[in-house]
Design goal:
Layout (H helix, E strand, L loop, with lengths): L1 H6 L5 E4 L1 H8 L14 E4 L6 H11 L3 E2 L1 E2 L9 E2 L10 E5 L4 E5 L14 E6 L11 H7 E2 L2 E10 L5 E6 L4 E3 L2 E3 L1 H8 L5 E11 L3 E10 L8 H8 L9 E6 L13 H13 L7
Parallel strand pairs: 1-2, 2-3, 15-16
Antiparallel strand pairs: 4-5, 5-6, 6-11, 7-8, 8-10, 9-10, 10-11, 12-13, 14-15
Helix pairs in contact: 2-3
Amino acid sequence: TLIRDVSELKATQFSGVPTMWVALMNRPGVTEVDFSSLKSCVSGGAPLPFEIQARIEQIVGTQLNNGWGMTETGPAGSRVPFQVPRRPGLIGVPLPGLAMRIVSMEAPGRELPAGEIGEIAIRGPNVFAGYLDDPAGTAASFQDGWFLTGDIGRMDESGLFEIVDRRKNMIISSGFNVYPAAVENAVYEHPSVEEVIVIGVPDAYRGQSARAYIKLKPGAQPFTLDDLSAFLAERLGRHEMPRSVEFRDALPRSPVGKLLPKVLMEEVAAQAAAPVAAVH
């Protein structure tokens, strides 16, 4: 196990997906383990919530190295320079030989200035040529030689990129753009929450609203939506607040441990499409 490899064999490097880091963080007695031999820790494969990253760095006593990439970029794209202070969503700068920019989601040929939110576009020798046997999908994914990643983000004045969320995950509630990742980061601060997925669900008044699916930490008791709203009151705007919450024993994930909002979206869509039973 990782604990044995570090405490007894004095491992110096560990790379893991977020599920592995969350499991380590929630392991009983983990704060008593000597992690001083670890010199390099990397999280990849899926976004790691900022609150989780901060807790892990406190436990292991060293900074987690992270960045951003996709299968389509082979799979690297950016890295966070070691000396840069961490903040939510930070993915750093393009790797050598690559170029990244933020483009308008309505007109992807138009580059946006620093600070504005748009779609992350990338080009370089590692970017794939296209999707196999899908010319339409390939054509829709490129603009003037730039691959449109489907990730929403922004670049600051110093050239550091931040990721906000996946474009397909964005919730439009009462005309406001709501980014599930931002809501999830806030929910992760709740001391009873082990994992959370936030998705948009149909809302007759708002069009869509956020729903939080939560897996509790062992021994933690469920709480009400009002309790969650009170906890989030100073962390989120009113338009970002979850309007429903559902507790699950487990959240859907891929074989490599990546949480899968798509499964819950499909579940909600199937429920909405199901015929309503007649009442006699």
